[in-house]
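Lab notebook page, bench 4
Experiment: in silico fold of construct C2
Operator: M.H.
Input chain length: 339 residues
Purpose: comparison with the prior construct
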Amino acid sequence: MSDSFSKIMVNNNEFIWNKEDGLFTFDGAPALLFWDAAIELFLRTIEEVSGSDVSNTVFEATGFRMGHLVSSYYSERFDIEEVVNEYMNIYRNAGWGTVKIHYFSIEEKKVIVHLNNSWEHRIFKDTNKEQAGVLLPSHWAGVFSGLFNENMWYKINQSQLSGNEYDEVEIFASTTTASANIHNLARQKEQAYINELESKVTERTEELASLVKDLSSPIIPVLKDILVLPLIGKFTDHRFEELNEKALFEFTARRAKYLIVDMTGISYFDELTIHGLQRLVLAINLIGGSCILVGISPSIALQMTNAQVDLKDIKIFSTLEHGVQYALEQTGFSITKND
């Protein structure tokens, strides 16, 4: 072989360096050599960018597909029994640590692999990781998926990071796939995003509902002892309940004597509104105050008459101005125009 080529055989594995073209092959396939530190940086960057849950799924998918690729390459050169035996040399010679096929059964579709001093363990040990990596276990799932021509997955029975002598990875037939995990993760992320949006919408809706409630039925202090309550829009039982509570609180807190209920903004007067208004008037009377109704339109007056609303004990005025003037007179005040 010329000076531009260097070749070495390790057991049955052939390594060739083409120094002229800057190429390296491992058993005839183009390959790369990396320091552990470079792989560590690569994995850590993926985890930093993606987060631990996403990066684990990425590592599993990558490892599985790498393993499937390896099995397709070597299964073309050896039968399955030979490949299994050869793998122990292949991975050791490639610097992946030692590999021992502890248990192998084609009938059971089950394999137990013991890994010692793997590059993934070396990297995780140096970074003080406490949980075993998933790239190599999923890699072996991919390897045997290709060899058995059936989808296989893995579980980690023990790990060197937990103080054991070796990593034990059990490979078995499963419906779990790397692609399915990616889709599930995508759905989880999508659902998490939807939940976040729904939470924000709910929060914003509550804020707007509170704002609308405050704006739709404000309690307005006019002068001493007099409050004005404008009724706006259509009322529900719940809205009237909140309105009554708010009116009673403000009326008591301000020690008012008159509550002027302005109905200018009411266009529809149904049975619910009738009962709600009657409850408000009665409640104000019970705490020693008086209600004054103003702003009743002709249509509302007709609806109230048809509903036979009892108004004999309630003062009613056509406009807010007249209602305020009456309340002022009752409290000993009056509005005069300056010359």
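Observations: Residues 217-330 form a domain with the Transcription Regulator spoIIAA fold (CATH 3.30.750.24). The longest strand covers residues 98-105.
Next step: discuss at group meeting.
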